[in-house]
Design a protein that fits this description.
Elements: H1 6-11, H2 19-22, H3 27-56, H4 59-67, H5 73-109, H6 112-118, H7 127-167, E1 177-178, E2 184-192, E3 197-208, E4 211-225, E5 230-244, E6 249-263, H8 283-292, H9 295-328, H10 335-362, H11 366-385, H12 396-410
Antiparallel strand pairs: 1-2, 2-3, 3-4, 4-5, 5-6
Helix pairs in contact: 3-5, 3-7, 5-7, 5-9, 5-10, 7-9, 8-9, 9-11, 10-11
C-alpha cells in the first residue's frame, strides 16, 4: 500500500483513480481506458458540432437550391456529405485540441491529476493514451487529405452537374416549353429515351440582346461536356432564323448537321466550386500540374502537396502543447478550453499563411515552409513539457494580461 492511509484514499474522487492504491498493476490499464472513453466521446461530439457549424455557412446556398431550383432533399444531403471532407481538414485537429484540453482540465480540476502525482506517477504517462488518439486522428486526417477529399470533390462536382441536368432534363418535359436556362427556351415534341434521340426540336436563344435566333430541327441529341462545362445539342435537318437587331438584318440558314452549345456556368449552383481547388486534387494530379505549370506557379502546387501531410501532422504537434496546457489549466472554467483551442487553432493557420507568403517571397524550400507551424508548436510544447510535473499553475490569460500591461507601461 502507498503512503496514503485508507482514510486519505476515501477522500479522493471515487472512481478509477482509487486503483492507484489497491490495484497498482491495473492502474495504467484502467486509467487509460477511462481517459480514452472521455477523449473519444468529446472528440466525436466536437467534430459533429464544428462540422455542423461550417455546414451552416452554406445554408443560404442550400436554401436557394431548394426554393428557387427545386432540388430534392436527396441531392441536398449528397452535397452536404460530399463537402464534409473539406471541412474535416479543419474540424479534426480542432476537435482533438478541444477534447484533450477539456478532458485533462477536468482531471486537474477534480484533483485526479494530483492523486496521480501523489502516488509518484510521472504525468508524462498521459502522453501514451493521448498519443494513441492523436496517431489515430493523424491517420484518418491523412487519408482524408490524400484520398477522400479528391473522391468527394469529384462526387460533389458530379452531383452539381446532375442537378443542372435535371433542371434542363428533356426526358420528362416532352411537349412543353423548358425555360430552365436563362435566355433560352427549348421545346421537344417527342423524346425517345431508349435510343437517346429527340424529335421536333425548337430552341429560342435570346441571351444576346443584339441577336435573337430560333433554331429548329427534325432530330437531335443532347450531350454534356464535363471538362468544358458545355451543354450541346447535336441537331440534324433543320434551319436557323437569326435577327441581328443592330443592323436590322434577318438571316435564314438551313443545315443538315449543326451543334448548338451553351455554357452551364449560368445555371449551375456554386459554379466556382466546379473548378478543382489544389486541396481537392490527387497527388498525381498535383505533380502533373506542377510539371506543366510556369515556374512562378510551381511553388503553390508544391505547397499543396506538402500540406496534405503537414496539416494532418498538426495533431501530433498539438499533442505536445495541449497535454501541458490541459494539466495546468485548473481554475479558469470549462469555457476557457474553447478559448484556448480557438486561439491555438487560429495561431496555427495564421502561421501557415504567413510562412507560405514569406517562403514564396524569399524562395524558402516548400517542405520547410509547410512544416514550419508544426515545428514551432512542437518546440513550444517541449518547452512546456519540461515543467509538466511542477506544482506551479499555468495561467495563459494571466500571463497575457501581465505582458499587455508591461507593453502599456513602456508606451
Amino acid at each position: 500500500m502507498s503512503d496514503f492511509s485508507k482514510a486519505q484514499v476515501d477522500t479522493l474522487r471515487p472512481g478509477v483513480l482509487n486503483y492507484t492504491v489497491f490495484l497498482p498493476r491495473n492502474l495504467y490499464k484502467k486509467f487509460y481506458g477511462y481517459l480514452w472513453k472521455e477523449l473519444l466521446s468529446l472528440f466525436l461530439l466536437s467534430v459533429g458540432i464544428f462540422t455542423f457549424i461550417l455546414v451552416l455557412s452554406r445554408i443560404g446556398k442550400i436554401a436557394d437550391l431548394v426554393v428557387n431550383r427545386g432540388v430534392g432533399i436527396t441531392d441536398i444531403l449528397a452535397l452536404i456529405v460530399y463537402s464534409s471532407p473539406a471541412y474535416l481538414s479543419f474540424t479534426l485537429p480542432m476537435a482533438f485540441l478541444l477534447s484533450t484540453i477539456v478532458s485533462l482540465g477536468r482531471l486537474s480540476s477534480e484533483n485526479e491529476i494530483l492523486a496521480l502525482k501523489a502516488n509518484g506517477i510521472n504525468l508524462r504517462c498521459l502522453f501514451i493514451p493521448i498519443s494513441v488518439v492523436a496517431v489515430g486522428i493523424f491517420v484518418v486526417s491523412l487519408l482524408n487529405t490524400t484520398f477522400l477529399q479528391y473522391k468527394s470533390g469529384e462526387a460533389f462536382r458530379n452531383t452539381l452537374v446532375n442537378i443542372a441536368k435535371k433542371g434542363i432534363s428533356i426526358d420528362d418535359k416532352e411537349g412543353i416549353f423548358n425555360d430552365a436556362i436563362p435566355g433560352i427556351v427549348i421545346y421537344i415534341d417527342k423524346v425517345d429515351t431508349k435510343n437517346r434521340a429527340l424529335y421536333g426540336i425548337v430552341i429560342s436563344d435570346e441571351r444576346d440582346e443584339g441577336v435573337k435566333q430560333t433554331i429548329s430541327a427534325t432530330k437531335g441529341a443532347v450531350n454534356i461536356d464535363l471538362d468544358a462545362l458545355d451543354l450541346s445539342f447535336v441537331l440534324e435537318n433543320g434551319s436557323i432564323h437569326r435577327w441581328e437587331k443592330k443592323n436590322d438584318v434577318y438571316r435564314n440558314l438551313s443545315f443538315s448537321n449543326y451543334v448548338f452549345s451553351m455554357n452551364l456556368d449560368t445555371i449551375l449552383p456554386h459554379n466556382r466550386e466546379l473548378r478543382k481547388k489544389n486541396s481537392e486534387m490527387a497527388l498525381s494530379e498535383l505533380r502533373k500540374a506542377m510539371a506543366k505549370a510556369k515556374s512562378e506557379d510551381r511553388y503553390g502546387y508544391a505547397m499543396a502537396i506538402y500540406n496534405k501531410f503537414s496539416v494532418p501532422f498538426s495533431c501530433v504537434a498539438f499533442l505536445l502543447l495541449t497535454v501541458p496546457l490541459g494539466v495546468k489549466r485548473k481554475t479558469e472554467g470549462k469555457f476557457s478550453a474553447v478559448v484556448y483551442s480557438l486561439l491555438i487553432f487560429i495561431c496555427y493557420y495564421v502561421l501557415m499563411a504567413v510562412s507560405e507568403n514569406v517562403g514564396k517571397r524569399y524562395h524558402v524550400p516548400p517542405l520547410l515552409v509547410s512544416f514550419a507551424p508544426n515545428i514551432i508548436f512542437c518546440l513550444l510544447g517541449l518547452q512546456m513539457l519540461r515543467h509538466l510535473n511542477d506544482e506551479q499553475q499555468f495561467d495563459p490569460l494571466a500571463r497575457m494580461k501581465v505582458f499587455w500591461e508591461s507593453i502599456r507601461a513602456k508606451a
